[in-house]
Amino acid sequence: MVNLIDNLSDKSVLRHPHLKNKSNNVSVDKPDWIKVRYKNSDGYNYTAKLVKELNLNTVCQEAACPNISECWDQRHATFMIMGDTCTRACAFCNVKTGIPNALDSKEPEKIGYAVEQMNLRHVVITSVDRDDLADGGAKHFSEVIRSIRDKSPDTTIEILTPDFLRKESALGIISDSNPDVFNHNLETVPALYLKIRPGARYFHSLSILRDIKQMNADIYTKSGIMVGLGETRDEVLQVMDDLISANVDFLTIGQYLQPSPKHAPVKKYVTPDEFKSYETIAKAKGFKMVSASAFTRSSYHADDDFEQLKENNRKINLHNPL
Fold first, then answer.
1. Which of 222, 274, 229, 226 is closest to 247 using CA atoms?
2. Looking at residue 58, what is its pLDDT?
């Protein structure tokens, strides 16, 4: 078997020619609990074949997700729409940066077909940043949602969107399309934005999470951060408070893993006990659902987590009737 993380990290250097002259960043040594092994399976091969035949992109591949083997084995995939090239260049991300191609008008239909064939009860749709589009790609998201609903009306839909910075019409389009879950990741603490997420603005990202809930109270909201980039514990707790103030329902916290030596280094591997502590505190602060572990990612176990989120919300409403 091959170590998935190391294998993907080596290949990812070739994806970022704009970083070729940048010096390598040395991360701290990986501890024993950061190990993922890749192996073939019938489920994995089925998912890979379907994605390839339909010429679809997945964040599982493009972002070098460590959970790809497990998720694809279960015939789960997170589809990444609007191409494989991002207009941003975040220091943590393995997705290619550059000038994107035109949108594929047939992509919504292909995504809908894939969801139908995989018989998904819950699907996560994400995208690259498309700063080149007038609405940031919001209409394309809505067309994908519509296609899935037409072909698989019982499938719940979670969208993980870019920040739609300076795209004033985008949130209204997203709200009208009525996804079950609106997810937008803050990614890191405010103090690290200039270094880690230079094209984004922390309080703008926070505001779209607040605003979508105000536009459509039926939508669950979700956000996540990575740890191990140099943030302090107090900064993480402050992000929790900020998200609670924006009425976010679901928080994910995962370990940052360096995609290549050219990307931001891992400053710390957070221990399982620290993740458990973050989870306990986040629940005490009022999140309806929390997932915190080294391998937690936005779409990891998203189907089961969404069912648990709905159940948790039902219990809260029973104890706090209007």
1. 222
2. 81
